[in-house]
Structures are given as structure tokens and as C-alpha cells.
Amino acid sequence: MTTHPRTQHPVIIVGGGISGLTAAAYLALAGHAVTLFEKANTPGGRARTRERNGFFFNQGAHALRLHEAGEQVLSELGVTYSGSQPQPTGIFGLVDGKVYPLSIGAGEMPFLTDAARVELMRVFGRIKQLNTEELQERSLQEWLEEQVEHPQVRQFLLARARISTYTNAPDLLSAGLALSLMNTQGVLYLDGGWQTLVDGLRQKAQEAGARLITQARVEAIEVAGEGYRVRLADDSCEDASAVLLATDPETASALVLNGTHEPLRRWAAQAIPASVACLDIALRRLPRAENLVTYCIDRPLYYSVHSAAAHLAPEGSALIHLMKYLRPGEVEEPEVSRQELEALMDLLQPGWRTEVVEQSFLPHMIASNAIVQAELGGLPGRPGPAVPGFPNLYVAGDWVGPEGEKVDACFASARSAARLMMTQLSSRQNASLDSSLGVVS
Ligand SMILES: Cc1cc2nc3c(=O)[nH]c(=O)nc-3n(C[C@H](O)[C@H](O)[C@H](O)COP(=O)(O)OP(=O)(O)OC[C@H]3O[C@@H](n4cnc5c(N)ncnc54)[C@H](O)[C@@H]3O)c2cc1C
């Protein structure tokens, strides 16, 4: 990467999740001074992994999509990781409370009628040919009602869309996004969990000179001369040549002009999060070793033994992720979600309760800060990364920019914001160098 002279004030990044760390790594590697403030004790945000008794607990099921922005960015930055794709064996479907073996590629879906199976195969073929860019502003619900005849096929495609987007709102979700994800190339479960990505990004950023300051909550961003003054919760301030807000949209809005900056305020108001309840379970052994993945076709539930593909548990034991995809605005009693997920375990792994080593229940996790909404224009309708009206103020995250979904949007928007900052800062530096040398254009 090219090296630029250090700017007078550092670039300040608010938030040390994947988005903030990615931008910090790009900027520091390009020679810019970077300070990142993270309010928690450690960086990583929702991508942190907790290690207990040899089990690696991501915060809910995490899978890295192959051949998307995340892979590209990690390779550009030289961050290495390992993992495997879930095996095509040991997959079951759950329909009407019954469990069936499933082989989608081979068309083996015993719960479908013959007519539904034929239509499903035809629709899969059609999805491969679609120009999904033209369907960004159509909702998945609308598309299914128009294009798919059989209710079982609709139900199956809805389940597929839930698994890839973690969104339980087909009436809001962009058909363009949901259908394009059905054509993607699979996912990786990561050895050691997503902490490997957090640690890798952090290491790249710090080795290149970025300062990472934890337990540092940013309270406000104020305009100061040509740059910004960043006010922290302990009443200290730091000046910045440029600022990246790598937080959720509500926090980003609250930090600028007390939440009254119109574009940021609107972006926060429009964002509808995709939320899930997560039950993560470490077992000494799997009572039913063959049941590794279950597609819950007629219920918004998820079950997968991630340790069957990745190193996440000691030999012979298992780490299982279960989730319930919550509808936007759904106020579910945590105990109700938990009981539903435990009942799913009773069905799929009878006797599991006596094998538990450790478990973690997270009743309300935000899997994405903003559902990709058809009404807002799908992916191209997402805001940022530049914040209008404020030069050199940017946002990044899973709600930002026209590229990628969930973490791929984080990687893509952070890279894009970092590149825009580099361009802006270089041209500003050249201008000030010209004026100090008396160059007239
Ligand atoms: C259950 C679950 C499952 C998921 N599964 C997948 C998956 O399979 N595939 C996928 O692609 N993605 C998945 N994701 C999404 C992925 O984890 C997130 O998109 C990504 O980690 C978000 O990174 P981020 O840096 O944008 O935000 P965050 O991780 O939320 O980080 C923001 C950081 O900013 C800090 N912060 C906030 N306010 C301030 C402040 N005022 N001052 C200082 N610091 C502040 C926070 O403490 C936090 O560390 C999943 C998420 C969840 C919750």
C-alpha cells in the first residue's frame, strides 16, 4: 500500500467492532495516524467470541459468506483465518413438527408434494437467471405471491431467505437481496470463532501504528476548524482531521448535533433492525450425532452444530447454535423464546440436558442494524458512508452503503469510508503544502 505523510490530527474512529477495526487497519496501513475509541473493555463488538472450557462461543450463529466483500477485505489486509463449510450430509428439514432427511441438491425433500418439488426446482433455475438488481425495490413477499404458485414452495423459499438474512419480515425485505443471496456460494464456520477476525484486524491496525483505546465512550462530535473535536465521557477531548462513526445508526445520530442533524436522524429513524434470540449450547457429546443441521421450514427457528465443521469444541464434544428470528417489533418474553428453542433441542437431540457443559442465552441480539428494505430501494438505497453536510465525517456498519449484507456490509462500507478519507486527506494535505510553498493554480 502507498504511504502518505501523517496528517496533523489523527483520524478518529468511534467503535471497535469489525467495521471500526477494518477502517483502522486500512488507514493505518496507508500511513495515516488513527485513534479508535471503543466503549467496551475489549474491541470486537458483536463479533467477539467467548472461550469457556475449550468451547468457543460466538454471540449466536456466525458464518462468513464465501466470495463476498468480507473475504476480499480480509485478503487485502492480510488477515488470515481458517474454517470449513458445513457438510452437505446430516441435514434435516422440520415441517409440521416432524423431522425429515433433506438433500436439496438432489431434490430430496420428502415433505413436499411432487408438484411442489417440480415447481421448486423450476424456481431455483429461474432465480439463477434473474437480474436481481431490478428487484431491489420489490419485497420478497410480493415477488413470491406473483411468481410462485405452490404455498409449500413459498414457505421453503421464505425459510431460505430467513437463514441467509436473519430477517423475519418478507413484507419488508428486498426480493433483490434475498434472491441474490440464494445464488451465493456457501459459508464458512470459523475455527476459534469470529474472534480470529477481530484479533487479526486489531493486530494489523496496531502493527501499522493505530491507537486502540478501550473503555472510552465517545459522547459528542463537534466541528472544530477544518476538522472535528471528539468529546469523551470522562470529559477529555481529542481533535480529529476526520471522523468515522462505526456504531449503530441511533448512536451515530445522537453523537452529532445532539441528534438533530437531519440525514443522520432520518437514517436512524428508517433503520429497522433484524433481531434474533440465541441459544448457544456446549455438549459433552451429541445424543444424535447424525443431526447436524435442521432447516425449520414452517417456523422461524435455526439449528446447526457449528463444531461439526469448525474447531469450536474439544474432540468428541459439540457446540450448537439455535436461534429464533424475531419479527420487527415483536415483544417476545425471553422465557418464551428460550422454551421454544429448548423444545427444538428436545426434538432434535433428545437427552441433551444431561450432556450440557455450558450454555448461553441471548434473548435479543441485533443481527443487522437495518433490514434491507424494498421500500427504501434495497441495497442501493442504504445510506452513507459520507455524511451529507459534514466534510470528512463518515459512517460504516451493517446498515451502510450499497454493497454486502450483515458483516459483508461492514467490511465493504468500512473500506469505502477509509478510501474516501484517504482521498480527502491527501488532497487537503497537497493543498496546504501548495499554499505553504506559494504555489498558485
Ligand atoms: C446473533 C448474531 C449472528 C450473526 N451472524 C452473522 C452471520 O452469520 N454472518 C454475518 O455476515 N454477520 C452476522 N452477524 C452480524 C455481524 O456480527 C455484525 O454485522 C458485525 O459484527 C457488526 O460489526 P460493527 O463493527 O459494524 O458493529 P458492532 O459489532 O455493533 O460494533 C460497534 C462497536 O461500537 C462500540 N460503540 C458504540 N457506541 C460507542 C460510543 N459512543 N463510543 C465508543 N464506542 C462505541 C460498541 O461497543 C461496539 O463495540 C451476526 C450478528 C449477530 C448478533
Structural summary, described in words:
The protein has eleven helices and 20 strands. With 441 residues, the chain is of the alpha/beta class. It has three domains: 175 residues, FAD/NAD(P)-binding domain; 120 residues; 75 residues, no CATH class. The strands form five sheets. The protein has a seven-stranded mixed β-sheet, with helices on both faces. The protein is globular, with a radius of gyration of 23 Å. The structure holds flavin-adenine dinucleotide. Flavin-adenine dinucleotide binds next to helix 1, strand 15, strand 19 and helix 11.
Please summarize what this structure is.
The chain is of the alpha/beta class and 441 residues long. The chain has three domains: 175 residues, FAD/NAD(P)-binding domain (3-Layer(bba) Sandwich); 120 residues; 75 residues, no CATH class.
Characteristic terms for this protein:
441 residues, alpha/beta, FAD/NAD(P)-binding domain, 7-stranded mixed sheet, 5-stranded parallel sheet, 32% helix, binds flavin-adenine dinucleotide
Fold blueprint:
Elements: E1 11-14, H1 18-29, E2 34-37, E3 49-52, E4 55-58, E5 64-65, H2 69-77, E6 83-84, E7 91-95, E8 98-101, H3 114-129, H4 140-147, H5 151-165, H6 175-182, E9 187-190, H7 195-207, E10 211-213, E11 218-224, E12 227-232, E13 237-240, E14 242-245, H8 249-255, H9 262-270, E15 274-283, E16 293-296, E17 301-305, E18 318-325, H10 334-348, E19 356-368, E20 393-395, H11 407-436
Parallel strand pairs: 1-2, 1-14, 2-10, 7-16, 14-20
Antiparallel strand pairs: 3-4, 5-9, 6-9, 7-8, 11-12, 12-13, 15-18, 15-19, 16-17, 17-18
Helix pairs in contact: 1-7, 1-11, 2-11, 3-5, 4-6, 5-6, 8-9
Bound molecules: flavin-adenine dinucleotide.
